[in-house]
Amino acid sequence: MGIYNALQYISFIILLTIFVKPLGGYLQRVFSAKRTALDRVFVPVERLLYRVTGVDAAMEMGAKEYAVCFVLFSLAGTLLLYGILRLQHFLPWFFPQYHTTPMTADLAGNTAISFSTTTTWQAYGGENTMSYFSQMAGLCAQNFLAGAAGLAVGIAFIRGMARERAQTVGNFWVDLTRSLLWVLLPGALIGAVLLVAQGVPMSFHRYTQAQSVEAGKQVIPQGPVAALEIIENLGTNGGGFFNANGAHPYENPTPFTNLLEMLAIALVPAALTNTFGRMVRQPRQGWMLYSVMLVLFGGALIFTHLAEQRGNPAFAGVEKKLHANQAGGNMEGKEVRFGIGGSVLTATVTSNTATGSTNSMHDSFMPLGGMVPLINMLLGEVVFGGLGTGIYSIVLIAVVAVFLTGLMVGRTPEFLGKKIGPPENKMIMLYTLAMPIALLPLTAVAVLTKGGLAGLTVNSGAHGFTEIFFAYTSCFANNGQSFAGLNANTLFYNVTTAVAMLFGRFALAIPALALAGLFAGQPKTPASSGTLPTDSWAFGLTLIGTILIVAGLSYFPALTLGPILERLVSK
Fold first, then answer.
1. Cα–Cα distance measured from residue 241 to residue 248, given in angstroms and rounded to the nearest whole number
2. N or C: which end of the chain has fewer CB within 10 A?
3. pTM across the whole model
């Protein structure tokens, strides 16, 4: 593995773990309306916003009303962004000589849905398509708003799980406002300053034309890169200012910025496990969930590294061993600034969260190396996940594990002292089945129709199948990264990937909120000698097994047709 790569991986895990408890406590105070250090700055702003918008901060909502507000807010953001994109050639900072990709109705609709669902799936090249105004007032704004909406839903879910004999789970507008003011804005400001200090541009200068050593002309894009870059990661969005995303030196110039951006992605989702433990008054529950995440994350990290470090067996006579002057392994599609270690860390972090930011070309990974990011997304955001979505994803799978173990011992399943009856089971099943029901038919249609196969401009066979399957998985997981060998800017893919994004955002959040509402209305049952302890290492192992079994039963045939078959054929 090499000492540098090992230190990089260990440093990330240690730094992340150090921040889980203090940040988790901060989030708990913010959303419980307890005093924080930022209150002097933001409380007056919060009150002004409520006065202007007419929001009654004291009035709470039931799960159904909360979900309706979430959907309507997302719809409003989608329509606003769609209008900006369609009219960008009339708006400031549009350079027609450089922004040459046509912003068609289907591409604008796909992009608007993509950013309002935190998917940030990009069927376009940023520097060739988006004006500075579209990037800042459209995409960057939605990174804040959609990320805050997702965090609000996650907090409402935790609140519902923690309450008893209650009919409400909070106020969506209050949670949204506090997510923006107390979490995303200060985090983005600190992160943007650090990125600018490392050389990430933050300007509105026109594109620069330079003459290369070979006497050719080179166009160097400029723009407000730092502002978009930090919130794309902190808000678990992932849409890059440039087509090369995190591999571009303006977005990610140094190994330090690479580590900083990966921490920005994982910090809040990881800390929400601690927030969950605090709010349900069982801190060990939070640490158990975080430990499960770390085990799955570490396994994916090691497996991907080994797959890439071994290199391509088809290249006979090529040096593949790591030493001082040779990276070894498979360096195809990877930035030499980051090498295999930095690329593997980024691929593992971003595919485990709802963040499609990349610093390497996953399409060029080895078959099994590329399979790991795909599996990470198929697990359903249970490892860190997106803002808010990660915590309710892993808790819902934990409830599935409780239900299965309850069946084995012949007891009515309980979680956090609440009964899991038929109404709760219906929401759990809706959540569990939503992904395969949406994902597998879309993939089947794509591989059986001319419109779907037309996107395979370079690869076919097993790798081509993986490109298509990866695209729909990424969109449903609201992740946004891709095997970029697939030409996705077509009417077929702009429409079908948009369907996957919408399902991934709302077909999961709505059952999660409904389950939280059901749990909030129940009284707590005192623990007895027959109560299954869900904060133990034994239950943690059960939860890991449940996660892997559910994903394996749903997707193993598709994985067999894609990366596994490609690996067997390439041997």
1. 9
2. C
3. 0.92
